[in-house]
Amino acid sequence: MSRTLVSGNNALDMYREAAKKTQDERIQLEYAKFLLQSIENLQDPASEIDPENREKLITEAVYWVKHLQRKGNTEASFIAGTWFEVGKYGIEKDRSKAVQLFTYAAKNHHASAAYKVAVYYEERKSNGRAFSYYQMAAALGDVAANYRMAKVFLEGSFHKKVNIKQALVYLRRSAELATAECPDGAFLLGQMYLKEYPNPAVYDVVFYDPEEAQRQLDKAANLGHVESQYLLGLFFEFGEHGFPVVPKLSIDYYQKAAEQDHAKAQMALSGWYLSGGDNVSIDDRLAFDWGHRAAQQGLTRAMYAMGYYYEMGVGCDKDIGRAKDWYERAAAAGSDEAKERLSKGIGGASSAESTAALRRHVTQKRQKAASRRGKKRGGILNRDKDKEGTGCIVM
């Protein structure tokens, strides 16, 4: 965005004059929100706006929001509340003032404000008030409030009785309205359709439906839900729940999760690039890079893999010293394979032969796992909660 936004921009000047001349709060509020969006855009490092002009925009935006808030405008009260909540645009942080403004907006049917008031009361163990405001926010269509209400009736929070049918009403609404800020409802509903939710009472009213599960998990994954991305990568790698084995799709989902620093997804990518597959070329450098990122997060199998990569020169220069260091880290984290490698001595095997054998091993292990999982339904989400997860098949 250029510096002309606040100096000599005819469109902005016309917008400003319209806001000044009108008594219509909707126009004034839209102008204030336009200014706020412009300010956020100007935080982009590529922006050419200078700090002085940005401060002018902030001053003008704060004026309009405060002006409308004093007149009792609901949305302006909510916006001002968010500023007091975190201390923004020169406004000193004041949680009490924020809650006061949120409460006012909630009483005027502002969904997000009602949710924030509910969170405030839950933090203070005022369960009755928290429940009431969550219920209000959910009825007004707040996604996170619907998800929280679903959890209340699934788990019996706030001294409420477990009520699966009522929980599902809220959960389905949360999934339907899912956003990047709250994709959790779609993820949880997807788990239920795969019979992966731990309370079996759910399955009196929710039936196994892998197609609907895929739709919900895909929705959550596309909204950035990292665990959904990882699980879809896993399902398309191993064919769990009747999913087809599609290496390209598996890699696409793993990639999304890996870019959010999901260590198991990073290690799964390392495995794919090590072995290759249908429409997937072997790329030792990528196998090394993704394995390294997973190892840096402390994933035991990734630390072992780094030892092997350095020992054999997979995607890197052969380095026995670094190999030994990674094996020792993996052994300290409980890897029996690393302990065995260290006890037998490292560096004696032929790199070419050992690397080729490893590629075959990874491919065969993946095929065997896919075949085994294809014969029975369910279980991968729960099994993947084990120490290292069953999805990391490298080594």
Written description of the protein model:
- By secondary structure, the chain is mainly α.
- It is 67% helix and 0% strand.
- The longest helix is centred in the last third of the chain and has 24 residues, at 351-374.
- The two termini are 50 Å apart.
- Mean pLDDT is 87; it is low at 1-8, 375-387 and 389-393.
Protein topology:
Layout lengths: L9 H12 L3 H17 L9 H20 L3 H13 L8 H13 L3 H13 L3 H13 L3 H13 L8 H13 L7 H10 L16 H13 L3 H13 L8 H12 L4 H13 L8 H13 L3 H13 L7 H13 L3 H9 L6 H24 L5 H4 L12
Quick rundown:
The protein is an all-alpha fold. It has helices at about 10-20, 25-40, 50-70, 75-85, 95-105, 110-125, 125-140, 145-155, 165-175, 185-195, 210-220, 225-240, 245-260, 265-275, 285-295, 300-310, 320-330, 335-345, 350-375, 380-385.
